[in-house]
Write a structure and sequence with these properties.
Length: 340
Amino acid sequence: MQSFREIDASHVDSAHLKNELDSRGYALIRRLLPFEDIENLLRKIAQILSDEGWLLPNQQPIARAANLRAACSESDPAFKRLYEKVFNLEALHSFAHHPKVFEVMRLLVGPKLLVHPKPIVRLIFPNCDRSVIHAHQDHLAVGGDTNCFTAWLPLHDCPAELGPLQVLEGSHRFGLQDADPDTGVISKGNVRGREWVSGAINAGDALIFHSLTVHSASPNTSSQLRISMDCRFQDYSHILNPANFVFPGSNDRSWESTYAYWVSKDLKYFWKHLPLRFKPSIDELTTLVNTVDSERMRVRYGRILSQIKLQMPLDTMSEVDQGSLSSQLPLPQNPVHEGL
């Protein structure tokens, strides 16, 4: 497998960054973020993992020494309980708005930059097959405008044995590729693109890729948990999936419960003043709740609709009218990579 092509943070400019994303589907920026800012967040997350018994008790939490008896993955109840505590961290959401990341993403997206409000934390146990992230495209889970970007940020050095990402160069040029309808996984035997690239990604680096870029994770064969973040960005004037602003997987989650112990108000509902363009719109969601064939999706659309009406003032949203529902892309039906 070929090594990542990389850019030093001191040499990033808009034209270069856009060219890399356009031609390769990704850009690896080295030494973008200060180590002390990363370590601050890592310590908070590691303490939660330690308190929940995910780490060995005879080592410092920041060492991330995994207790394999606690191994679990995103679909497990134990994972979901712990993940909620991590997601509620004010420091996690602040990190997604880090000035260094924001500056780089503005170079790529432009002045109307939106940070998606639900950053995802990947907590990957070693030697746990259920935790391995297989080849997929983020757009299938994220929806909205295809011109959306993910910044993958490891919170510690991530050499080969810890399972860094692999990216299929040029795969974003083939649109949505055939994937398993339940998991979103794309068979590596059928995937289209040029060649797979990978390599060590260290704390402070940022791997940025297009929502249609096919990527996967190498297996974690170490003795430590791998901890990383997915932060997503796009132009806020483009269409957005409303599911990314609420919690369609649960009736018990809300932004108010997330914000309950925050000190600052600066990032609470930071998107509410923006003229967002949801697709499906409020009217379309209302129709989908009553007409979609799948009961699971009716429940999901219903949760999205009720949570949006409860948590977001409708006068902040621009309704998008682009023809009949039958001609529209529905909300993603395999939210396996959404986190919450």
